[in-house]
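About this split. The held-out portion is used to measure sequence recovery: a designer receives only the C-alpha cells and must propose an amino acid at every position. Recovery is the fraction of positions where the proposal matches the reference. Here is one held-out target exactly as it appears in the evaluation file.
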C-alpha cells in the first residue's frame, strides 16, 4: 500500500517511523510519503491560509496550494488513489471503514489546520477520485495529523504481514465475525498471580470450550457496561440461549424483533 500525507507539519508524522507502521515501511509493505504543503506556496511568507468569506473567527486553508499539491501527488503514482480527509464533520471512523481502506492500494491524506480547507478542494477532487471525509470522534483537535496517525495505525495492522500473528486482529473489538459489535474482553498473561491478584481459573484449565464461553461472557459484560448501545446493533441470530440469559441478567430486554435493549428510564414525579 502507498500512503501520502500532505501537511504543514511534516514532523508531526514522525511516529510513522516506529512500531508496526515503521516495521511495515522497512519491509516494504507500506510506502509512506510525507509532503510539506508550504512547498506549493509562492509568496515569501509561504502562506497557506486566509480569512473566511462571510466573516467569522479563525482562518481557512487556501485552495491554491492544496490544488497544486494534490495535482502533483496524484500525478506521481499509478492506480486509483483514495483521498482521506480527516474532519470532525465527517463519517465516523470504524473498524468496518478501516477494513475497507486496508483493501485500497493508495491512500492520500489531507490533514487540515485552522477552520479547515476551502470546500472547493473536496468538491474538485471528488470528481477525480474516491473521497472519504472521516471523523475519529465527537471532539475537535488542533489539526488533522493526529487523526492521520490513528487511521494509519488501524489500517496498517490489517495489511498482510504487518502483524506477527495473522490471527491477532480477528477477535479485536468491532472486528467482523461472530463477535462483531462486541468489545473485546479482558486479557491476561504470566505470572498466574501478581500482587495477590490471580488469573481467572478457567483460563488455566486448558478446556477450550469453557474458555471460549468465558471470553464471550466477559465481552458481553464489558460491552453492556461501557457501550450498551452496541448490544442493540447485534443481529438476533448471533445470540445463543446462554447469551440471552446473560443479557437479561445484565438488565436488557428482548424486543419483538429479537434485539436487546435497555428498558426506558422512568422519571419520578
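Reference sequence for scoring:
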Amino acid at each position: 500500500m502507498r500512503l501520502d500525507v500532505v501537511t504543514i507539519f511534516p514532523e508531526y508524522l514522525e511516529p510513522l517511523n516506529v512500531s508496526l507502521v515503521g516495521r511495515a515501511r522497512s519491509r516494504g509493505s507500506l510506502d509512506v510519503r510525507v509532503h510539506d504543503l508550504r512547498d506549493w506556496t509562492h509568496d515569501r511568507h509561504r502562506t497557506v491560509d486566509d480569512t473566511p468569506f462571510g466573516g467569522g473567527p479563525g482562518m481557512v486553508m487556501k485552495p491554491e496550494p492544496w490544488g497544486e499539491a494534490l495535482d502533483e501527488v496524484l500525478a506521481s503514482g499509478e492506480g486509483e488513489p483514495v483521498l482521506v480527509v480527516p474532519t470532525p464533520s465527517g463519517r465516523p471512523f470504524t473498524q468496518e471503514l478501516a477494513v475497507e481502506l486496508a483493501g485500497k492500494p493508495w491512500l492520500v491524506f489531507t490533514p487540515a489546520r485552522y477552520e479547515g480547507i476551502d470546500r472547493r478542494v473536496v468538491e474538485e477532487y471528488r470528481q477525480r477520485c474516491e473521497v472519504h471525509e472521516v471523523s475519529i470522534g465527537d471532539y475537535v483537535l488542533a489539526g488533522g495529523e493526529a487523526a492521520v496517525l490513528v487511521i494509519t495505525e488501524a489500517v496498517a495492522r490489517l495489511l498482510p504481514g504487518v502483524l506477527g500473528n495473522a490471527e491477532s486482529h480477528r477477535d479485536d473489538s468491532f472486528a467482523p465475525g461472530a463477535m462483531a459489535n462486541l468489545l473485546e474482553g479482558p486479557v491476561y498473561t504470566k505470572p498466574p498471580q501478581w500482587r495477590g491478584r490471580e488469573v481467572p481459573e478457567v483460563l488455566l484449565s486448558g478446556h477450550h470450550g469453557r474458555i471460549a464461553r468465558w471470553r464471550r461472557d466477559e465481552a458481553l459484560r464489558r460491552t453492556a457496561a461501557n457501550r450498551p448501545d452496541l448490544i442493540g446493533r447485534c443481529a438476533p441470530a448471533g445470540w445463543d440461549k446462554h447469551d440471552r440469559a446473560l443479557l437479561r441478567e445484565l438488565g436488557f430486554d428482548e424486543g419483538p424483533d429479537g434485539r436487546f435493549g435497555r428498558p426506558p428510564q422512568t422519571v419520578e414525579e
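Annotator remark: Residues 203 and 212 are 9 Å apart (CA to CA).
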